[in-house]
Design goal:
alpha/beta; Rossmann fold; three-stranded antiparallel beta sheet; 4 helices; binds inosinic acid; binds magnesium ion
Length: 183
Amino acid sequence: MPNRWRREIANVLISEERIARRVRSLAKEIARDFAGRDLVIVSLLNGTVMFLGDLIRHLSLPLRLDFIGVSSYGSDTKSGALIFTKELRLDVRGRDVLLVDDILDTGKTLTKVLEKLRPLRPRRIKVCVLLEKKARRTAPARADYVGFQIPDKFVVGYGLDFAERYRNLPFIGVLRPEIYEGT
Ligand code: IMP
Ligand code: MG
């Protein structure tokens, strides 16, 4: 890990190289499952920036891309009430939708977004997340494609933030508790 981050990041949980390998194999799996379909990728802002960029560059199939902005009010490390900051623009009726998010934690975000997408009558919706913390699930959400299962620790990097910071780290690291304690 670069020295610059040592005071804030306790350890690297998933290296840049491991992420790259896993994202390529996820892309292969997805390309196989959606071959010949009219695919619309719906990605949740802002946490998916890096994951989405790497995933779609390895998806050799025609697709369209759109975004939904979701942001949670309240404390920075726990999911609070959700607000939508950007709405879907593409018509997904009858299409195959791949919903992409950074991390499946309590499941509240995915549950809310799926409630919004289902009435638009897509042919099917599959969910892809880079990370999953199984231990914290409270809402009945599940993902079809999961990059990595991770322990119940607050992680940042590769798009994931704490208070909008650390999204630019190329690896996924565990944030030192003293950084977020008291929030
Ligand atoms: P859920 O609604 O509890 O499933 O949480 C999903 C959202 O919470 C993600 O899209 C992230 O923005 C955020 N989140 C949950 N766990 C972490 C974490 O460890 N690091 C950074 N963000 C997280
Ligand atoms: Mg987020």
